[in-house]
What does this fold into?
Amino acid sequence: MKRAKIKSLQAINRQILKSRVNIIMIAVFLLCLVLILRLGYLQILQGDTYQEQVENAQYVEINQSAPRGEIYDRNGNLLVGNESQRAIYFTRHRNMNSNEIMEAAEDLSGYLDMDTESISLRDKQDYLAREYPEEVESLMGEESTLLENGNITQEAFNEELYNRVGEEQLDSILTDEDLNTLAIYVEMINAPELNPVTVKGEDVSEEEFARVNDNLENLDGITTGMDWERTYPYDDTLRTIFGEVSSSEEGLPREQVEYYMSRGYSRNDRVGQSYLEFQYENTLRGEKEEVKYSTDKSGEIINQEVTEPGKSGDDLYLTIDMELQLELEEVAEYHLTEIREMAEEIQQRNEETGEIDYTIIPEHIDTVVLAVQDPNNGDLLAMVGKQINEEGEIVDYHHGALTSTYTAGSSIKGATVATGYQNDVIETGEEIVDAPMSFSGERTISSFFNQDDSVTVNDQTALMVSSNVYMVNTALRMAGIDYYDGISLPNDISDAGQTLRNGLSQFGLGVSTGIDLPNEATGLSPELTNNPGNYLDLSIGQYDTYSALQLSQYASTIANDGQRIQLHLGNEVRGSDSNANGPVLQSYNGNVLNNVNLSDEQLNQIQAGFYDVFNTHEQQRDLYGTGWDAYHNLEPAAAGKTGTAEAFKEGDPVLNQTYVGYAPYDDPEMAFSIIFPSTPSTEPFFPTQYMGADVINKYYEVEHDAEPVELHQYDTNDFYQQLVYGSYD
It folds into this structure.
């Protein structure tokens, strides 16, 4: 048998070592292969991406503020412009800490004088703790020891400091130079990295600007430039309606930061905060200059370049006619003042003679609002509001035409008649006997022109003489109720009330006019379930409340044959051009919101009633249109409706007097509304109706170069006698 060959131990060890070396070599080879492949992947496939990231680490795009677009009236008159002003900016480097910012503020403080009045107590306390440790230790001796020994936290120490150190102690320690530095530091500390913030953007003197410019090399992060501020060539006229723009210090509104930043804004960008500036933010906002900053490894800015120049916002042209606006403001001031003075004279006379039994409080006569529009396209030509303040001064209240609502009285009866037509409860020309109506609970309703007699009127005449009885009968029929003396009304009449309100809303009463402004008031529409008498009041304008803009849209809807057109202030958007009017980018036309479903015969009947209100004296029955005294001599003739609503002010009975109309009556090109609230509750009413005639005359004077007509001259003596004897003669 052959003997097996046995390897020596040494040979076996050599074999094992060789195998291990081979395994290691293979592993090294594989690792090198993986490394080569990974490097190739990074350099070839991902090289551009990583190169871009490296560049982005050095170049950062930021946005600079640009001037807003300007606002003009329909004729190209500048209403809101921009004024350049010197400004000092700070740009925070990357990784720039609070100590470095404080050093920068101290350096800049030698060149700028800041307003220090608005520095908060907390900022002063923090500055004291930072810059005056010895004084703090003296003031906080025991707490300083406890803090040093670790027996209280820094937070508890700071809280005690805030509670103990007040303005008086701070004033004794901090110098004027400290406060100036602190005011600069407060503006700089919250700056985002590589995003310029304004350190001082108002009242930068020429000397300050020059000194900072001359020392920019020594001022870390500081640059100079030009900022802008809104200017108003017509001072306070329509100032509220134009709205406000935030300052660079305010930046984005806190509650809307996320909304704006998602749309590319920066925190310190200036935005429209109210009314037109807010409504047309996207139009007026400028295109900001884009800048790339180059930084070194430490985050210091070493270079910057403009990659995209800034551009002013687009210009907004309004429907407002500024000449007409200014003229109507004078008309409003004149009539408000004259009526107030008349009330004062009558009150003084009555205190001496005691001849009249009326409560006349002149101070209640403090407001008038009006609106004028083109009824054919919804252009708002003028909106005026005037008030007399507690000091007796007249102040602007233009936004009152938009935001204040009042019971309007008989002015709205045209819409009541139209709703009666639509619900088939009255027909054109239908006659009703106007006589006092009595209801259970001792309530009576009568027409002012006919408080005791019986007079037959049709729908047209009912508008002319403002028949309450005709409107109440119409409302009762809509509720399925036949009137008889002493009738009891159901408690819940809300269904009929909603039907009536739907009819009124077709004309813009109680609903939005569509005006391109925020905060429009649509009025009060209380429930009608508990007091059926309120439903009857609704039909004659004595319950719901309406604004001057709503009443103007209502008059326009009647004027243009039942088309309710959206009110608007924006007329055109034009590209910004410093040398001329820019190109038209967008035009705003009047959108038809709805058409009132009436036949031509029904519309003509309402329009004829409106004509009679201003122009007709029915001699056979001696019936006058309620606006005849003030309006019948107008040339060309106008049409409209008057209204008087009972109200209360500070517990005293007053009257809201309203007027709506349009001219010329046969081809309307202007419509108007006037609300004269809180006039004395007297018979006859205070003669505010003449203001409407003056508004129409002034329109023709401005728009058609008509011969000027003198404003109505009030005669206190004559009106006082009418109050004494209760006569309209």
Q: What stands out?
A: Residues 322-329+362-703 form a domain with the Beta-lactamase fold (CATH 3.40.710.10). DSSP finds 26 helices and 24 strands in the chain. The first strand starts at residue 59 and ends at 64. The mean pLDDT is 90.
